[in-house]
TrEMBL record:
Residues 159-244 form the SCD domain. This is Cohesin subunit SA. PROSITE patterns: SCD (PS51425). Residues 940-963, 990-1023 have a biased composition (Polar residues). Belongs to the SCC3 family. GO terms for biological process: cell division; chromosome segregation; establishment of meiotic sister chromatid cohesion; meiotic cell cycle. Residues 971-980, 1027-1041, 1066-1075 have a biased composition (Acidic residues). The keyword Ion transport does not apply. Residues 928-939, 1042-1051 have a biased composition (Basic and acidic residues). The lineage of its organism: Eukaryota, Metazoa, Chordata, Craniata, Vertebrata. The gene is STAG3. Residues 917-1075 are annotated as: Disordered. Keywords: Cell cycle, Cell division, Chromosome, Chromosome partition, Meiosis, Nucleus, Phosphoprotein. GO terms for molecular function: chromatin binding. Gene3D superfamilies: Leucine-rich Repeat Variant (1.25.10.10).
Length: 1075
C-alpha cells in the first residue's frame, strides 16, 4: 500500500472501509486485553525509536513517511484515526526528545574532549584525535538538526492543531506529553512559547485535561533548578492556578493545592496573603483529600516557619517544648481569629497527615490546660480542649469527623499497630490527669462534656494491669460531682456513657464502679422521691423547687438511657406525675418532658427483661398494660397547648408503636405476640393531624421571620424531618393504615425541597410492598387536594388557580414515579384512569342546568398519567369516557375544556378543529353505522398527513414487538360488569402473535361509538405499539443548573439498593435524586 498509494489515498481508502457505527476502537474498547493495548502500543513506539536511533532514524525515508502519515491521520474526521494517530505522534515526539537529549549530552562531551585535546602542549597534541573529534561534532550536529526537524514537524503538524481538539482525550494526551518534553529537555522546551499551551489549557472545560495541566506544572515547579525560569509564566497564570483550588472536581482542586505548595516552597514571596486567604477555608472542605492538601499548605505557610525559628537543632530538637507550645498557640490563633468554622475537629483532621506528630503531643496540650499562669481566655480554653479531644479520637479511632468524605476502606496492619500504640500512650498519660482537668473546669459545661468523652478513647484494659485504679476512683468522684452540679443534656449524656464504659463485668475494678453508680443513683432517686411528694401534695411550687425536680428527672433520664434502673422502680412515680399533668394541667412543662422519657425507657428495659422464651404471661400482661397506659397519656399530650410536649409525645409514640408493631414477632419471636399493639383509629387520626399541623407548614409560620437565626431554622427543619420520618416508618411497618400515606404524598411537590427525599423513599417502599394499593393512594391524594380546593374556591375557574397548577405538577410527578416499566404497570394505570373518570363525574349538575359537573376539572389532573398508557388502552378509555358522559346532559353547542384536554391526552393526533365542533356528551345514544373501508383509509391517510405536518417535535419511529405473556386485565372486566356494560371495553383482547400487524386508527371524535362485536377490535389488540410519548419533564431551576454544571462530565447513574429491612428512614439526611 505504501509503495502504490500516496498518504492521502491511503487515508481516504481506510476512511471508506472504516465502520463508524460501532464507535469502539482499540484505544476505547472495553475489556482487560484492550486496556493493556494502549500501554503496549506506546511501548512499541518508544522501542521503535530507540532501536533506530543510530541508523534508520537518520535515513530520511522511514521516519519522514511515518511522520507525514501520522500528521495526515491526526487531521482526519474519523475519531478513531485522529485519536490513535495523535497518541502515536505524541509518543514518537517524546521518544525523539529523549534522543535529542542524548545527542545534546554527546555534543557536550565531545566539546569537552576537543577543548582538552586542543589545550595540550605541541608535543602532546594529536592532530588525528582533533580531526576525529571535529568529524564527530559535525556528525552530531547533523543528527541534532535532523531530530529537531522531525520534532518541529510533529509539533507544528500535530500538537498545534490537536491540543485544542474537540475530543478531551486527545487534548489530555497533548498536554501530558508537552509536560514531559519541558521537564526532560528543559534547555530547548522550557520557554514561554511552549509553556503558553499549558497555561491556556488551564481553562479547559474538561476536568481531566485541567488535571493533566496541573500535573505537568507540578513536575516543573517541583524542580528548584527550573523555577527561576518560570517567573513570567507564574506572573501570567498565577491567578488561574489559585482559583483552581475551588474547582468543582475534587481531583483537580487537590492537584491545584499541591501545586501551590510547591510554589510556596520553591518560589518565595510569589503567593501573596490574598492568595493564601483563598486557600485557608479549604481546610474545612467535606472532601478529606482536598482538606488534607489545604492543611499541608497551611502548615508550610503558617506553622512550619515559626516552629523552625524556635528550634536550634534540626529534626532531633524539632519537638522541643518551646516549638510545640508555639505550634498550639498558632493553631489556636488561626482557628479563633479566622472564624471560618465552629468545630476544631475538622481542622485537626486536615492537619493530621502533615502534623500528626505535633497534634499527638498530649503532654504539651495538657500542660497548657493545667498551668496556672496561662494567658488563655475562655474561648481559647474551649478550643484547646476540643483540639485535645479531637486528636485523641483521631489517634484511637482513625475516622474523620462526621460529614467528611474519605475514599479509604480500612487501615493497613502498620496503621493498626500505630493506632494501638497511640491508644496505650494516650491512656497512660491522660488517666492520671483527667480528674485534674475535670476538677479545674467542672463549673463550665461546655468544657466538661468533651473531657468526659475522652474516656471513650482509652484502652481501659491496661487500667487493670498497670495500677491505675486509684486514678479511676478520683475520676468517679469527679464524675459524681459533675452530674450533681450540671443538668445540661450534653454533660449528662457524656457522663452516663463514660460510666457505662467503666461498668464492664470483665474489668477487675467493676465492683467499685458498680458501687459508685449505685451510690449516685440512690442519691438521685431519693431526691426525686422527696421532690415528687412535695409536688403532688402542694398546690403551688416556686421556681427553685420546679427547677430542682426537673434537673433530677433529667439526670435520671440520661442515666436510664444507658443503664438499667429497673430496680429503682421509677415507672409508678413518673406515671402518677404524668397522670396529674394530664388531669389537672398544673405540672410545669420542664417536668413533664423528662418524666415522659423516663416512662418510655422503663417500658423498653422491661421489654428486654421479658424478651426470652422463659417470660411468664403475667409479666407480658403487666408490660402490655403499662404500654397501653403510656400510649393513652401520650395521646392526651398530643392535644397539649405546649408544642414541645406535643412533639415529645409524638416522637415517643412513633418509637414505641414501631417497637411493639407486628414486626417484633419476626425472626422466631412468636412468644412476644401478646405484646403486639396496634393503635386505634382515633390515635391514628390524631397522629396524622399532628403531622399536618407541625410538619407541613410554610416557613413563614416559624415565628420571628427575617430576624431568626439561620441555624435555628435548620434545627427546626431537622426536627420536622425526624417527625415525618417517624410517621413514614409507622406506615411502612403496617402500624398505621396505608391510606394515611395520602396525607404525606399530597405534599410531595409543595414541600419537595424540605422532605422530597423522605417522601420519595416512602413512595418507593410502598410501591415495592403493594403496587396496586400504592397507585390507589396516589389517586386518593389528588382527590383530597382537589376536594379541598373545590370547597375553598368553588367550581368556577378552578383550573386557572395557582393551587390547581401545583396539583398538575404533583400529578406529573406521580406519573413519573411509575418508572419505565410500562407493561408491568399497565393494569394499574388503566384502573387509575377509570377511577379518576368516575370521580370526575360522581357529582352531576342539577337537571336542566348547563353547568359542568363540579369534579370535571379533575380530568386535567388525570391527563398527566396518559403518557403511561398503551396506545390501544387510550382508545378504549375514550370509549369508557363516552359511556360515562352519556349520563350527563349538556346544552348543545357548548364544550367542556377538561374533557377536551383529557381526550387530546388520550388521542394526540386528533383533529382539534373538527373535534371542537362536536356536541359532547350526547343525552341519547345514537346508532352510527361502522365506517366503510374507504372511509377508514381516508381517516388513516388524514392521520398520517397530520403526523407529518403538525407533530412537533417529530414523532419517534414506531416499533412493534410481540408480547408472549400479557398481563391480564381481569379487574377491569369485573368493574365493567358492575357498571352494567355489555362487556369489557378496556380489557378485551386476544394474545398477541408475531404475524399480526398493528392496525390502530385513533378515533376521529372521542364520542364515536364502537361495536363490541366488530371483528376489527380483536385485530387492534393483537400488537403493542411501543411508542415513546412526548412527556413534559419536570425540571426545577436547581436541576437545570446541575445539568449545566455537569455538561462536560461523563454520564453516571447512581443506584440506591434497598436494604433487607425498612430502616432506611432512620436517617433523615438522605441523598436521593429526583424522579
Amino acid at each position: 500500500m505504501f509503495m502504490k498509494m500516496s498518504n492521502s489515498e491511503i487515508i481516504r481508502h481506510l476512511t471508506e472501509q472504516f465502520n463508524e457505527d460501532s464507535g469502539d476502537y482499540p484505544l476505547t474498547a472495553p475489556g482487560s486485553s484492550w486496556k493493556k493495548f494502549r500501554g503496549s502500543f506506546c511501548e512499541f513506539v518508544k522501542t521503535l525509536v530507540y532501536q533506530c536511533q543510530y541508523s534508520l532514524l537518520y535515513d530520511g525515508f522511514p521516519m519522514d513517511n511515518l511522520i507525514s502519515l501520522l500528521t495526515g491521520f491526526s487531521d482526519s474526521q474519523v475519531r478513531a484515526f485522529r485519536h490513535t494517530s495523535t497518541l502515536a505522534a505524541m509518543k514518537l515526539m517524546t521518544s525523539l526528545v529523549g534522543v535529542a537529549l542524548q545527542l545534546s549530552l554527546h555534543r557536550d562531551n565531545n566539546q569537552r574532549q576537543y577543548e582538552a585535546e586542543r589545550n595540550k602542549g605541541p608535543g602532546q597534541r594529536a592532530p588525528e584525535r582533533l580531526e576525529s573529534l571535529l568529524e564527530k561534532r559535525r556528525e552530531l550536529q547533523e543528527h541534532q538538526e535532523e531530530i529537531e526537524g522531525m520534532m518541529n514537524a510533529l509539533f507544528r503538524g500535530v500538537f498545534v492543531h490537536r491540543y485544542r481538539d474537540v475530543l478531551p482525550e486527545i487534548r489530555a494526551i497533548c498536554i501530558e506529553e508537552i509536560g514531559c518534553w519541558i521537564q526532560s529537555y528543559s534547555t530547548s522546551f522550557l520557554t514561554d512559547s511552549y509553556l503558553k499551551y499549558i497555561g491556556w489549557t488551564l481553562h479547559d472545560k474538561n476536568w481531566e485535561v485541567r488535571l493533566k495541566c496541573l500535573k505537568a506544572l507540578k513536575g516543573l515547579y517541583g524542580n528548584q533548578d527550573l523555577t527561576a525560569r518560570l517567573d513570567l509564566f507564574t506572573s501570567r497564570f498565577k491567578d488561574r492556578m489559585v482559583s483552581m483550588v475551588m474547582d468543582r472536581e475534587y481531583d483537580v482542586a487537590v492537584e491545584a493545592v499541591r501545586l501551590l505548595i510547591l510554589i510556596l516552597k520553591n518560589m518565595e514571596g510569589v503567593l501573596t496573603d490574598a492568595d493564601c486567604e483563598i486557600i485557608y477555608p479549604v481546610v474545612y472542605a467535606s472532601n478529606r483529600a482536598l482538606a488534607s492538601a489545604a492543611g499541608e499548605f497551611l502548615y508550610w505557610k503558617l506553622f512550619y516557619p515559626e516552629c523552625e525559628a524556635r528550634t536550634a537543632g534540626g529534626r532531633a530538637r524539632r519537638r522541643s517544648p518551646l516549638a510545640q507550645r508555639t505550634f498550639f498557640h498558632l493553631l489556636l490563633s488561626f482557628f479563633v481569629e479566622s472564624e471560618l468554622h465552629d468545630h476544631a475537629a475538622y481542622l485537626v483532621d486536615s492537619l493530621w497527615d502533615c502534623a500528626g506528630s505535633q497534634l499527638k503531643d498530649w503532654e504539651s496540650l495538657t500542660g497548657l490546660l493545667l498551668e496556672k499562669d496561662q494567658n488563655l481566655d475562655d474561648v481559647q480554653e474551649s478550643t484547646l480542649i476540643e483540639i485535645l479531644v479531637s486528636s485523641a479520637r483521631q489517634a484511637s479511632e482513625g475516622h474523620p469527623p462526621v460529614g467528611r468524605i474519605t475514599g479509604r476502606k480500612g487501615l493497613t496492619p502498620k496503621e493498626r499497630k500505630t493506632q494501638a500504640d497511640d491508644k496505650v500512650k494516650l491512656t497512660e498519660h491522660l488517666i492520671p490527669l483527667l480528674p485534674q482537668l475535670l476538677a479545674k473546669f467542672s463549673a463550665d459545661a461546655e468544657k466538661v462534656a468533651p473531657l468526659l468523652q475522652l474516656l471513650g478513647c482509652f484502652d481501659l484494659s491496661i487500667c487493670c494491669t498497670r495500677r491505675l485504679e486509684k486514678h479511676l476512683e478520683l475520676f468517679l468522684q469527679q464524675l459524681q460531682e459533675v452530674v450533681v452540679k450540671h443538668c445540661e443534656p450534653a454533660v449528662l449524656e457524656a457522663g452516663a456513657h463514660a460510666l457505662y464504659l467503666l461498668c464492664n463485668p470483665e474489668f477487675t475494678f467493676f465492683s467499685r464502679v458498680d458501687f459508685a453508680r449505685s451510690q449516685l443513683l440512690d442519691l438521685l432517686t431519693d431526691r426525686f422521691q422527696q421532690e415528687l411528694e412535695e409536688l403532688l401534695q402542694s398546690s403551688f411550687l416556686d421556681e427553685d423547687e420546679v427547677y430542682g425536680l426537673a434537673a433530677t428527672l433529667k439526670r435520671l433520664s440520661a442515666f436510664y438511657n444507658a443503664h438499667d434502673l429497673t430496680r429503682w422502680e421509677l415507672y409508678e412515680p413518673c406515671y402518677r406525675l404524668l397522670r396529674k399533668a394530664v388531669d389537672t394541667g398544673e405540672v410545669p412543662r420542664q417536668v413533664i418532658l423528662p418524666a415522659m422519657t423516663l416512662v418510655y425507657y422503663s417500658i423498653l428495659w422491661t421489654l428486654t427483661h421479658i424478651s426470652g422464651p422463659s417470660a411468664s404471661q403475667k409479666q407480658q400482661l403487666s408490660l402490655k398494660d403499662r404500654l397501653v397506659a403510656f400510649c393513652e397519656l401520650c395521646q392526651s399530650c398530643l392535644s397539649d397547648v405546649d408544642p414541645g410536649i406535643q412533639e415529645q409525645a409524638f416522637v415517643l409514640l412513633s418509637d414505641v408503636l414501631l417497637i411493639f408493631s407486628p414486626q417484633m414477632v419476626v425472626g422466631g419471636h412468636d412468644f412476644l405476640r401478646p405484646l403486639v399493639f396496634l393503635p386505634e383509629a382515633t390515635l391514628q387520626s390524631e397522629l396524622a393531624s399532628f403531622l399536618m399541623d407541625h410538619v407541613f407548614i410554610q416557613p413563614g409560620d416559624l415565628g420571628s421571620g427575617p430576624s431568626q437565626e439561620d441555624h435555628l431554622q435548620i434545627e427546626q427543619l431537622h426536627q420536622r424531618r425526624r417527625l415525618l420520618a417517624g410517621f413514614c416508618k409507622l406506615l411502612l411497618y403496617g402500624v398505621l393504615e396505608m391510606d394515611a400515606a395520602s396525607d404525606v404524598f399530597k405534599h410531595y411537590n409543595k414541600f419537595y425541597s424540605d422532605y422530597g427525599d423522605i417522601i420519595k423513599e416512602t413512595l418507593t417502599r410502598a410501591r415495592q410492598m403493594d403496587r396496586g394499593r400504592c397507585s390507589r393512594i396516589l389517586l386518593l391524594s389528588l382527590k383530597q387536594l382537589y376536594t379541598e380546593l373545590l370547597q375553598e374556591q368553588g367550581p368556577q375557574g378552578l383550573n386557572e388557580l395557582p393551587a390547581f397548577i401545583e396539583m398538575r405538577d404533583l400529578a406529573r410527578r406521580f406519573a413519573l414515579s411509575f418508572g419505565p416499566q410500562q407493561l408491568q404497570n399497565r393494569d394499574l394505570v388503566v384502573l387509575l384512569h377509570k377511577e379518576g373518570i368516575r370521580f370526575s363525574l360522581s357529582e352531576l349538575p342539577p337537571a336542566g342546568s348547563s353547568d359542568q359537573p363540579p369534579n370535571l376539572a379533575f380530568l386535567e389532573l388525570l391527563s398527566e398519567f396518559s403518557p403511561r398508557l398503551f396506545h390501544q388502552d387510550k382508545q378504549l378509555l375514550l370509549s369508557y369516557l363516552e359511556k360515562c358522559l352519556q349520563r350527563v346532559s349538556q346544552t348543545s353547542g357548548c364544550s367542556w375544556g377538561p374533557v377536551t384536554t383529557y381526550c387530546h391526552s388520550l388521542n394526540p393526533v386528533e383533529n382539534i378543529a373538527e373535534a371542537s365542533l362536536q356536541s359532547y356528551p350526547r343525552s341519547k345514544r345514537r346508532r352510527v353505522e361502522g365506517p366503510s373501508k374507504h372511509s377508514r383509509e381516508d381517516t388513516s391517510s388524514f392521520q398520517e398527513e397530520s403526523l407529518q405536518v403538525n407533530s412537533i417535535p417529530p414523532t419517534p419511529t414506531l416499533t412493534s414487538t410481540a408480547v408472549k405473556n400479557r398481563h391480564s386485565l381481569g379487574e377491569l372486566e369485573e368493574m365493567e360488569e358492575e357498571e352494567g356494560g355489555s362487556g369489557s371495553e378496556c380489557a378485551q383482547g386476544q394474545p398477541l402473535t408475531d404475524t399480526q400487524l398493528p392496525r390502530f386508527s385513533g378515533p376521529q371524535h372521542f364520542q364515536t361509538p364502537r361495536n363490541p362485536s366488530d371483528p376489527s377490535l380483536g385485530n387492534q389488540l393483537t400488537r403493542l405499539n411501543l411508542m415513546e410519548e412526548d412527556e413534559e419533564e419536570l425540571e426545577t431551576e436547581d436541576e437545570s443548573n446541575e445539568e449545566w454544571r455537569d455538561a462536560d462530565k461523563q454520564p453516571n447513574s447512581h443506584s440506591f439498593p434497598s436494604e433487607h429491612g425498612l430502616d432506611l428512614l432512620d436517617s433523615t439526611e438522605l441523598d436521593i435524586e429526583d424522579f
